[in-house]
Design a protein that fits this description.
The chain is an alpha/beta fold. The protein has one domain: Vaccinia Virus protein VP39 (Rossmann fold), CATH 3.40.50.150. Helix content is 27%, strand content 28%. The protein is built from seven helices and eleven strands. The protein has a seven-stranded mixed sheet with strand order 3-2-1-4-5-11-10, with helices on both faces. Strands 6-7 form a two-stranded antiparallel ribbon. Strands 8-9 form a two-stranded antiparallel sheet. Helix 4 packs parallel to helix 5.
């Protein structure tokens, strides 16, 4: 759901200096490089960076991978990038406000930050529960609505596939993200809540149909003012 909206908002990236902030195994960095961007990608996980560098060795696209904490980007120069992209990362970063400060520093004046997170309104401390009639129905059409609670609790959220070590993310409110962006010097240009395409709904109806009712992700575009 995210990629089509993200690339539409990014527009033409040919020749642009782009930072992939929290690149993981490098899939987004490779897509950006294939579209003509000059990409530097950072992540704090040596194992994921090893995968990304192996991919770069097998299919060179000119991506430079660096190990760094998003809140401490001292390896990167001031005003080094035209665009920063951070895709479903910042909800897992402890010092997300410090990351915004560093993003502002390494962006050129007039540069753009696009980041996506799991939607703060629906990824809350108490997992949302669909109210179903009858209670055991699996038909999307018989789900009345989503029961939400504890939105203002800023806590860690532990999750992960069954049998795997748990991963941690952090619940923040929309206000938290907006306040941190403003404090770092950014101006919010737009927000988008991407929906699955008609093709995705047709191909995987059960997995995606409920996302036509409640957004799962939020994309924010913020600008570093030119002056």
């Amino acid at each position: 759901m995210i990629d089509p909206a993200l690339f539409r908002l990014l527009g033409d990236v040919r020749g642009r200096r782009v930072l992939d902030a929290g690149c993981g195994s490098g899939y987004l960095a490779r897509l950006l490089a294939a579209k003509g961007a000059e990409v530097v990608a950072v992540d704090h996980s040596p194992k994921l960076l090893e995968i990304a560098r192996c991919e770069e060795t097998e299919e060179p696209l000119g991506v430079k991978y660096l190990e760094a904490d998003l809140g401490r980007l001292s390896l990167l120069a001031d005003a080094a990038f035209d665009i920063i992209v951070s895709n479903v990362v910042l909800q897992d970063v402890v010092a997300f406000d410090r990351a915004f400060t560093e993003f502002h520093r390494v962006l050129r004046p007039g540069g753009r930050l696009l980041f996506s997170v799991t939607h703060p309104c629906f990824e809350r401390p108490v997992p949302g529960m669909w109210i179903r009639e009858p209670p055991d129905t699996e038909r999307i059409e018989e789900w009345r609505g989503l029961l939400l609670d504890r939105y203002y609790d800023r806590v860690a959220l532990w999750w992960g596939p069954s049998g795997q070590p748990p991963m941690v993310g952090f619940h923040r409110t929309l206000e938290d993200y907006a306040t941190a962006l403003g404090a770092a010097g950014f101006l919010i240009a737009r927000m988008e809540e991407p929906r699955p395409s008609g093709e995705a709904i047709k191909r995987m109806h059960r997995q995606f149909a409920d996302y036509l009712r409640v957004p799962n992700f939020l994309i924010v575009e913020a600008l570093r003012p030119a002056k």
